[in-house]
Amino acid sequence: MSGLDPGMEVRETIISDIDVRSTLTVAAGPVLDKMVEELSDTRFSILLADRTSRIVDRRVTSQAIGRALDRVLAVPGFQYLEEVSGTNSLATAFELRRPIAVTGEEHFLEALRRFCCYGAPIIHPVTHRLEGVIDVSGPVADATTLLGPFLMRAARDIEERLLEGSRVAEKQLLAEFQAHANQKRHAVIALGENLVLTNTAAVDLIKGADHVALRAIAADLSSRAPFECSLTLASGTEVSVRARAVAGSHGGALFEITEDSSLVTRRPSGPRRSITAPADEPSPTKLSRTVLITGEPGTGRTSTARSLAGAECVVFDAADAVEDDSTWFLAVRSALREADKSIVIDNIDALSPRLAAQLAAPVRVSRNPVVLAGAPLSELDNPHRALASLALTRHDLQPLRTYPHKLAGIVKSVLEDLLPNSTVELAPSALQVLATQPWPGNIRELRAVLEYAARGRDRGVIVETDLPETIRTNTNSSRTLTLMETAERDAIVAALRASNGNKAAAAAELGIGRTTLYARLRRYRISDPAPQASVRNRNSSTTR
Question: Engineered SS bond to 190: which of 197, 203, 340, 480, CB 3.0-4.6 Å?
Fold first, then answer.
């Protein structure tokens, strides 16, 4: 059903970086060390996979068995699922949630039939959820029933260490919470790996959807310094958040949340409104003569430009110049000279270099307010940058992936815009899935996903299964990227675009080695992005 054939090799998928300090790897480390000692005079290897069946640790007793595992992609970072590897003790134990032995001909793929494998699931004693799978594999000639009890003992030892670690982490989090929970002036909430603690004020203020935003903030916390920010809750309330990491709690954090009267709650001004990325937007009544709005596709730059220019503005889309650039240019120049209205010139990055250079003079001398909108400055060619430089007031709309802690508010706004008279809400589990997405299409893509999920509804809750399959299956990581990781990913994408996909040149521009670049490409699931200039070059050749 998955398209596998017995004669195939293990199907290649993306190999991701792993967290070597996760709760599972920390708990399993001493157990794996002991297993290696006991298997030191054998030809068996040990594999540890996480709750998504991604291999996070590998121990081999000889170079030969290590090379054999490499050939079947049994390497850290590879997700060993039945869809890519067929029947085997790692993937099948993950699917069945029970111990299993798969030896020789019992493997579906011929490439794995040289191995005898024994796998057992690791179940968390507190949550009873699958935390991972431990596997022992070796040459089929060395198969023995003695490895079954040996493996089960190791799995129980790891589960016991998970329990002990959970108790210590929960005690640390509980102690920190109790030290602050008696505060009656503000809400206090503690979030751990499998634990949520709130005081009475937080019960009234914080909804389940807000936990996604708080966990996104927790992912960026330093172990030393507290973090403060403003946040719009799912209810629309503006609050101030003070967060600090709790030492020894496996990523736990304590939040003190207060309603700030100095923050103005955003309310819709009419039945419909445009949804844009958070930005320090000027008032339309105080619009500078020339303003530049930049951002990735889908960040809302067009709607923001129209909003700033006012309802009576005249809009010109540079994409329309592809068919007849002379007629388009004459119409824009005439409006800049004569019309007593604000002018919006959208998608300036789609202009040919010649047309961008021609347009600079009319924009410079126009007495009308002008709003230019286009791609980020770093992606513009010289003629387009010269045009953009005429705007001394500039606003860069940030990509949706850079503010996951504000995703709940954005989702609420988009749903209100799509279904103004409905009571449809998003379940916290579905919101958590959305928070893990890279969102290359930004708010435009989010809007399409929510429109699909809410189809035919005017009430109720959107759950994870309502989301498109491409979204549900695009969660390669159990956590969202931190702001530093997001910045690193964006820098790599920009360097690849600037170098037309040349990885050696991109690595040199970034000041890193090619090996490091390849690791980052796997980690962030970056394919070769098409250079942004290609669209403009095609436009230029068309007009010529």
Answer: 197
